[in-house]
Specification:
Layout lengths: L2 E6 L5 H9 L3 E5 L6 E9 L2 E7 L11 H10 L4 E7 L3 H14 L3 E6 L1 H6 L2 E3 L1 H8 L3 E3 L8 H6 L16 H12 E3 L6 H10 L1 H49 L5 H6 L19 H27 L1 H8 L1 H6 L7 H9 L1 H7 L6 H14 L3 H11 L4 H25 L19 H35 L2 H16 L6 H7 L4 H7 L7 H13 L4 H11 L1 H28 L1
Parallel strand pairs: 1-4, 1-5, 5-6, 6-8
Antiparallel strand pairs: 2-3, 3-4, 7-9
Helix pairs in contact: 3-7, 9-11, 11-19, 14-15, 15-24, 16-18, 16-25, 17-22, 17-23, 18-23, 19-24, 20-21, 21-22, 23-25, 24-25
Length: about 575
């Protein structure tokens, strides 16, 4: 296994860079025969696993302390060195760099604290520095993640360097190099630079993230509801419904083919939510109920990407997400899931490993209600005060954390590091943003809609064969005894497989008390994805992993619902 050694002066951001390269799976060790500690982790390099060693900080290869001795000895074990250089203090750091050239070991320079050097008015001609030294030089900012991806991609170019100098003239050569490649000027931070810095610092980044999330939900809800109310519902009710009613009359208003194509008539009319026909519910659900929120969410997501915020959000939550077996970019499927679980499930493709995709998809399906369902829960439980809503969403968040920790503990595999370029904040290019929105929306329609229609068809058949009624009967004892819900709630839980928000709405006429509403809302969110998400998850995870995920969903939903029922009975 190739050994990559991180070597640099103390306090140059080397440990942060190490965390960026290896995630949180690190091993702290004492160097043999010493109490000097160094850390070791792993990364993928050129498709192969490589060990990364974070050597103790050292100013020179002529050690004056035990830590510097260990750093020098670790150098002998390295196949390649990443020399971490502080861009704000080039002169001091180049001493070690020139010593590495004398050693003849392949290395690459990470010109770290690059963002800070710009803020302080230091300008370094990277190309001239690279040509002078004869080794690759990559500007990086380990805190924000800027340049990390490029650094990893260029490790293969590492070489011993070609700079020739006499040992006794080393500092003279360093001064000459610095004069040649570096300029210092006075400048102030721009507002966007200050905002960019604040976005990745926990103290300021978290409040910014909360404000952004609140704005996202408001925009998505407003756009989605407006599209439904003023565009899609009128199209279906005024244009499509009369055509389907004529077809219904031609089919005799009943029979197997009628039930498959149009479904059941509700009081002699088509109910696009409850009829369950391919031409009614099968089209209405993906186009009039899901697509508006997906469209709105893709618009907001594209804006966040192009403005430069989304990568910073990934960096901000990276450490937390690693605790759950994911990395920072896993926040994307979670965010998308809040709009609609279907694109959230599809977005798990951004994750590198099967393990990550499984954890992210399972967590999203269990703990992330879609926007339509959130609105229904707020309307139903919110009537009893904010405390009930706090219990519902607080429980889901706690379950998200707990199940993530458990899966991270017991599922085999590792969480790879996050490699993402951090662009500066800039206004999105509108044409490009709309193009991206169009491509994503059409992709959703091509990928998701056929599967949704297939899912509706299957549910329709199961209803026709009374299999769903049978499931309702055998699960009734769990619903009434374990969850403390009335038998009538079984219907809502079954409909929840088709649409979660509709299922929550079906609880309204049952006269449930606050305890029952909280339990039902939590269980409805957790127990199983809606049919559209379910079909997409099978496609993304495969049947075997989806079955495992389903077991986790049902088991955790019953367990959490039962515990909630017991606890809430006490208070």
């Amino acid at each position: 296994m190739k050994a990559v050694l991180l070597m640099g002066n103390p306090n140059v951001g080397k440990s942060v860079l190490f965390s960026r390269l290896t995630g949180v799976y690190v091993v702290a060790s004492n160097y043999p025969g010493t109490t000097v500690e160094y850390t070791k982790g792993f990364m993928m390099l050129g498709g192969e696993k490589a060990v990364v060693i974070d050597a103790p900080g050292t100013y020179t290869l002529e050690p004056a302390s035990r830590a510097e001795e260990v750093a020098s000895e670790l150098l002998e074990e390295a196949d390649v060195v990443i020399n971490v250089v502080d861009a704000t203090n080039l002169e001091r750091n180049l001493n070690l760099t020139l010593e590495l050239i004398k050693k003849g070991i392949p290395f690459i320079i990470a010109l770290n604290l690059w963002d800070e050097s710009k803020h302080t008015g230091i300008s370094i001609d990277v190309r001239s520095l690279e040509e002078s030294l004869g080794v690759p030089v990559v500007p990086t900012s380990a805190i924000s993640g800027e340049g990390i991806k490029t650094l990893v991609s260029r490790v293969a170019e590492a070489n011993p360097g070609s700079y020739q100098y006499k040992e006794e003239e080393r500092w003279f050569e360093i001064g000459r190099l610095v004069d040649f490649v570096q300029k210092v000027s006075h400048r102030h931070h721009t507002f966007l630079e200050r905002l960019a810095d604040a976005s990745v610092m926990p103290a300021t980044g978290i409040p910014i993230a909360l404000i952004v999330m609140f704005a996202i939900f408001q925009i998505i809800r407003w756009v989605g509801e407006s599209l439904i109310a003023y565009v899609f519902e009128p199209i279906f009710e005024k244009l499509w419904a009369p055509l389907v009613m004529r077809l219904s009359a031609l089919l005799g208003s009943g029979g197997f083919i009628h039930d498959v194509l149009i479904g059941k008539l509700v009081e002699g009319e088509i109910d696009f939510v409850e009829s369950l026909g391919l031409l009614t519910t099968g089209l209405f659900v993906p186009f009039a109920m899901v697509l508006p929120y997906v469209f709105a969410f893709y618009f907001v997501l594209s804006f966040l990407e192009d403005s430069g915020y989304l990568p910073r959000l990934g960096v901000l939550v990276d450490t937390v997400m690693h605790r759950l077996g994911l990395h920072g970019l896993s926040v994307i499927p979670m965010l998308l899931g809040l709009g609609c679980n279907v694109p959230g499930a599809m977005a798990t493709r951004v994750l590198e490993t099967r393990r990550e995709r499984f954890i992210a998809a399972t967590l999203m399906a269990i703990c992330v209600p879609c926007m339509a369902q959130i609105a229904m829960i707020v309307g139903l439980v919110g009537r009893h005060g904010a405390a009930g809503l706090g219990v519902v969403f607080g429980t889901l968040f706690a379950v998200w954390i707990i199940i993530g920790l458990v899966m991270n503990r017991f599922l085999k595999g590792e969480s790879p590091e996050i490699f993402v370029e951090i662009p500066p904040y800039r206004p999105p290019y509108l044409v490009g943003l709309m193009k991206k929105l169009w491509m994503r929306t059409t992709h959703f329609l091509k990928e998701a809609v056929p599967w949704v229609i297939i899912g509706v068809f299957i549910v329709n058949i199961l209803y026709a064969l009374h299999i769903i009624d049978f499931i309702g009967k055998i699960t009734a004892p769990v619903i009434t005894r374990v969850l403390g819900l009335p038998r009538e709630a079984v219907g809502a839980l079954i409909i929840g497989f088709l649409r979660k928000d509709v299922a929550v709405g079906m609880l309204s006429p049952l006269g449930l008390n606050l305890r029952q509403l909280i339990v039902a809302s939590v269980v409805l969110t957790m127990y199983f994805p809606c049919v559209a998400t379910f079909i997409i998850l099978i496609k993304e995870l495969g049947i075997k992993d989806m079955a495992k995920s389903a077991v986790i969903m049902v088991t955790s939903a019953v367990a959490v619902g039962g515990i909630l029922n017991l606890i809430l009975r006490i208070f």
